[in-house]
Amino acid sequence: MVSSYRQIFAVPGTAAFELAALAARMAHLMTVLSIIFFIPAVTGSYGLAGVVSAAYALTYSLASPFVSRLADRGRPGRVLAAATAAGGLCRAGLLAAAWAGAPGWVAVALAACSGGSMPAVGSMARARWNRLLHGSPLLHPALSFESVVDETILVAAPMLVAALATSVSPAAGLIMALVLASAGTATLAAQQRDRPPAVRLGHRARATAMATPGFPALLIAFVLVGAALTVIDLSTVAFSAQHHAKALSGLILAAIALASAASGLRYGSRQLRMAPQQRLPMALALLACGTLPFAAAPDVWFLFPAAGLLGLTVAPTLITGFSTAGLAVPAGQLTEGLTWVTAAMGVGISIGSASAGQIVDAWGTRASFGCAACCAGAAVLAGCAVRQRLRLRSSTKDG
Fold it and tell me: How far apart are alpha carbons 376 and 181 in whole angstroms?
């Protein structure tokens, strides 16, 4: 297993851009979380903190596909350099505005600008792997490693933010996020030898990746996946609280992330013969099956093995989805296409966050766990549509 990952980092330049991408991606999640600690400490308002954090996350989800499209059309280094400058100014402005006691709308606007100027670094890293290793068996472990990085950040960022906010200063998390984001994106912008070349696009290729046959169905699948996983997360917290064990909810969610990271490493080390679009419905079906035990949980302790089983299905599903997107979209729209998949997950997370609490209040946690399973089941149908659409496109090309 180790040899597969050693080989991908033997490719010149890969270790450097992976470290830079890791720093920038860590900064992105740290920003969302650090706002929740910083704004209430300065203003005393948790409501404002929620709005500021949501403004950052929403504008990031909406703007990142278009930033990635600019990177596909021109020199990615120029886009990253502009994003470094704009993001650094906006993040510093947010800190200064909060410390100076500026009106709440100023903090919201600066957070929105920060999110809008944050590039989808994970998608850019995946796009580089696709271009460097296209047609190579090493591409699969490379994309698998990216999903493991995502899961690791998901576990590490909250712990780091909480430690900085409670042990150093409420602003420490945002300051570190500013440093990591600026250093990461600036380093990526400065790297020349492994930068993907600019693609000269014809008239038809200038269309958005959304016009690719089968791609909208793939996005629907990942909206549903994002919603399902978020409902599981929030329902787990509510279920634990109802059973007077809320402190265990963090450990249960960590079990999902850790199992996902482990399965991603194992999945990436295997050589798979079946095409990603053929594997996609099966991966989604396993994910849907993994959500079912939560609805049958008699107590909190039952959620630990359920979390482990669900976690084993998450990374393979995400890896397969990104691999499918990489094959589906034209080369000149690769970064944009991968970013749309991430944005679809973000939309699903927003939907899950907005609906989970309402379902729990109205019908209880068992119903919310059931809704998560329904979302995952619907994602399987969307995955089947992706497979069929790409099969038809392939047969049309062959004909």
Answer: 33
**Is the CA virtual torsion 268, 140, 188, 73 positive or negative?**
negative
Three-class secondary structure of residue 333 per DSSP? helix
> Are 34 and 161 within 8 A, CB to CB?
yes
Cα–Cα distance measured from residue 378 to residue 225, given in angstroms and rounded to the nearest whole number: 9
Same structural domain, 135 and 36: yes
Q: Answer yes or no: do 304 and 276 share one domain.
A: yes
CA 104 to chain CA centroid, nearest Å: 28
CA dihedral 232→236→238→239, nearest 10 degrees, is: 120
Same domain, 275 and 388: yes
How far apart are alpha carbons 176 and 158 in whole angstroms? 13
pLDDT tens by residue, 26-73: 999 888 888 878 888 888 887 888 788 878 888 888 888 888 888 777
The DSSP secondary structure of 147-206, one letter per residue, reads HHHHHHHHHHHHHHHHHHHHHT-TTHHHHHHHHHHHHHHHHHHH--TTSPPPPPP-TGGG
C-alpha closest to that of 57 among 108, 123, 125: 108
pLDDT of residue 348: 85
Which residues span the domain enclosing 360? 204-398
